[in-house]
Each structure stands twice: as structure tokens, then as C-alpha cells.
Amino acid sequence: MRASLSHRPAGTLAGMVHEAHGFRLDGMLLGVATAATQVEGGDVESNWSDWADRPGTIADGSTPRRATDHWRRWREDTELMASLGVQVYRMSVDWARLEPRHGAWDDAAFARYREELTLLRDKGIRPLVTLHHFSHPSWFERDGGWLAPGALWVWERFVSEVVTRLGDLVAEWVTINEPNVYVTGGHVFGDFPPGHRSLREGMRVYSVLAAAHIRAYALIHALRPAPDTMVGVAHHLRTFRPGNPRNPKHQALTRVMRHLFQDAIVRAMTTGEFATPLRRRAGIESGCYADFFGLNYYSRTTVTRFDDGTPPGVPVNDLGWEVYPAGLGETARWAWETYRLPVWVTENGTCDAADAFRSRYLWDHLWVLSEVRAQGVPVERYYHWCFVDNWEWAEGEQPRFGLVALDYETQERTVRDSGRFFAEVIREGGTTPEMFASHVAGQSYPVSTTEGHHR
Questions:
Q1: Within a 13 Å sphere around the CA of 279, how many CA atoms are in the beta-carbon half?
Q2: Does the UniProt entry include the keyword Chloroplast (predicted)?
Q3: What is the pLDDT confidence band of residue 15, given thresholds at 50, 70 and 90?
Q4: How far apart are CA 306 and CA 455, in angstroms?
Q5: Domain extents for the chain?
Q6: Cα-flanking dihedrals φ and ψ of residue 447, to 5°?
Q7: Closest Cα partner for 99 from 89, 108, 87?
Q8: What are the residues whose beta carbons fall under 8 Å from the beta carbon of 67, sequence distance 6 or more?
Q9: At the fourth CATH level, which superfamily is domain 5-454?
């Protein structure tokens, strides 16, 4: 159930006392993030195109075949990014395009990615490439997906081919995006392909994905031993709180949910240490399997039962997700203090069709990062989700996350005011009171009036 909404004046968000002053982000690289299935379009045979073809799986009945048509409009999008001053760009390659049939590589698709990567570099935009962002070929899914007996071997073959063919243009890699969201969506709650509902199966897939990352980490460094090669995971982290702090059941469930959703998989992928209920695979040793900590942060979970809860009376976005800027600092600090890796915010953004509060969202979250950086947490990068409105998985085309608005019928791109604000932040290396007055003052978040629960 989505939370119903009201509005709260901009200045009443608790703790945001920084409005009268600008802040600096000197040295932190700023950019945007996308994913191939969400932007490229085209008739690609993947688990997500197959899933979208099943009635009732996508909220608005759309499919990823249209998306933002980025596969054909990549030059236009790259030029637009450059005009906004984007410094870093997180993108993914589509495994289903590159290996449309088992063991058969599409040379033209590799050549197309090389063109895009070359133009990005020519424009001074540093690419960070994700190898698995929720999507893989239909044949891989039909063979059993990550639970197939040969899945890790097939995965390593794919990683090797991509890094061999594109590695001269890419130094920075994300192996797997949000393994916890992929597992809970596809194997626990059944909202993503393959649509299974089994906590036990989900924990099995967790273990396989941890092994997949660890093997890919070693393989990429073996293929590209250059000192600037950087490999990590884009982890989805949330802050959790019990709905009633005095309720022992809420307290216990909060601890269990945090462990199952993020702590165990993060530990396994980062250190090779597998905590219950994950199981270590043969040949994996304890060590360090990340060169940076990729942090995707969107919201906070209030725990009253086994799902994602939002209480009444809190700021929320169009999808009813709580807007809790302090959580970005809390998760970044936890990542640094636990693993001592530089933190890259590989995703952060909000659904706001009217662009009514996205500039405030940016201001609030970037201010939090400026504060934790001043306290010694090495947050080196911030990738805003997303660049252009895109196909938002099970929600379809309706959610609007983009700094750039998209007309799906005409594919026309229009830079929103929040996009112009972000461009100013990049240009200035921070913010000023004048920027606040021009872009943020007067903006307000919607506020939930009922309890909401989301998958």
C-alpha cells in the first residue's frame, strides 16, 4: 500500500539547519548513473524483457523495449552530459546484447560500446562500468540462472570477454549491482524475474553472487593489472529502525532484517567471510575483494513486519519512499568504519515527476556528504540516479527520477531545473546561498499521512 501524501514546508525538515549557507565538495567527483536495460531500448532477449511480456508484472504494462532509446541516441546523451559538466558516469553493458546466444558474441554490439566509451573519454567523462545490473540473457535464465550448475563458469567467461574487449577504455568496474535487491525482488518476494518466493532459495543465490563477485574481482585484476584498475560492488544500503523502539519483536526483527538484507552479503562480498545463512563455496579464502565501497542509498526502513515500512508523518517521494538524508551519512560512515575503503555513492536520487523537491533533495544529501567528509569519511564520488527519466523495472515508465525529463512518445529530452542546479554544483564545486535561493528555497517534500509498506 502506498502512503497517502500531504505537504510540509521546505524549512521544517528536522536537522536541516544549513539552508542559509553554502557548502564545499572540493575533490569529490560528481556525475550520474544509468543501467542498460533501463535506458537502451530495443528488442533484446533478456530476463527482464521476458518478464515484462507476462501480464501483470509491470505496473503500467510497459516493457524495456522503448526506454530512452539510448542505444541509438547515445551521442545526444553524451553531449548533453558534457554540457552539464558531468565528471563521472556509471553505465552498464547488457550481457544479453553482447552474448545473445550461449557462447556467441555480437561483435557489432561490442563495437558500439567502444564508440560510446571513446566519446565519453574524449569529453572528459570517466566511465564506471557495471557488468550485471539486474539483467542477463534469456538463455541464462532458462538454464537455471545463478543456481545452474555451470553459472559461475558462464559468468567468468562473460567477464573475461568484456574486460578483454573493453578494458583499454575502462579502468573502473562494478561487478554486480544491488545483489540484495536482485535477490529479494526475484527470489524472496517474487516482484522481479524469475518471480520465485523462497527465503531459502534467496540465501542460496546470495552465496552464489558473493562467489561471482569474488571470482570476477580476481579475474579483472589478472586481466588488467594496471594500478588504476578499480573493482567493487554497488551495494544497496538502508538505515533500519524499529516501528516501536520499545517493542521487543520490532527490535529483534529490525536486527534480523538488516542482517539478511545487507550486512551478511556485504561482508561476504567484501571480505570473503560468510556468515549464517550464507555458505562459503570451495576455493574462496578470506581477504579483501573491493577497491572501493559502492553505496546506493535511497531511503530508511521502519520495521513492524517483514517488509519495507514507512510511517506516517515523514517526508516521502512520489513512490512513498521516506526521504531521510541523514541516512546517507550514516551508511557512508558505517561503510568506512567497517571496511576502510573509499566510499563511492554509486546511486542516490528520488522520484519526483513535478521536479518539485529534487533540488532540495540534492542539496540535503550533498550537504550530508560534505559533513561526513569533513569528519574524515573519504566519500570520493557521487553518482546521481538518474540522468534521463528511465524505465523503472516493475514500476515501468511512470516514475520520474531524471535530472532530464523524457517525453516517451517523442523521446525529447528537457533539462529540468534540478538538472541545471546540479550542473551549477559541479561547476562551483559546491553550493552558495544564491544557488539555494534560485533552486531550493520554497521547495517542500510530500509527507506521508498513513503507514505504507513496499517491496
A1: 8
A2: no
A3: very low
A4: 10
A5: 5-454
A6: -130, 135
A7: 108
A8: 37, 38, 39, 40, 41, 390, 391
A9: Glycosidases (3.20.20.80)
